[in-house]
Design goal:
three-stranded antiparallel sheet; alpha+beta; 16% strand; Arc Repressor Mutant, subunit A; 64 residues
C-alpha cells in the first residue's frame, strides 16, 4: 500500500530511531521519558517522526 510506504519514511520505529541517532535503547527511553524526543504511541507501537526528532535535537543541541 502506497500510504504505508509514506508513513514508513516519515515515522521511525524504535530500532530505526536508535540507528539514526546511534544510541542505545536505554538512552532513547531516557530521552523519551524526559520529553526531549517527541513520539506517538499507536496501539502497542511507539513511533518517532523523523522531522520532529531532527527539530528537537537541534533545539536541545544533543550530542552523543
Amino acid at each position: 500500500m502506497h500510504y504505508q510506504k509514506d508513513l514508513q519514511k516519515e515515522y521511525l520505529n524504535t530500532q530505526e530511531c536508535m540507528l539514526l541517532l546511534d544510541i542505545s535503547r536505554t538512552t532513547l527511553w531516557e530521552l523519551r521519558r524526559e520529553g526531549r524526543i517527541p513520539f506517538i504511541r499507536l496501539r502497542n507501537k511507539i513511533l518517532y517522526s523523523r522531522q520532529a526528532i531532527e527539530e528537537s535535537l537541534t533545539k536541545i543541541n544533543y550530542t552523543k
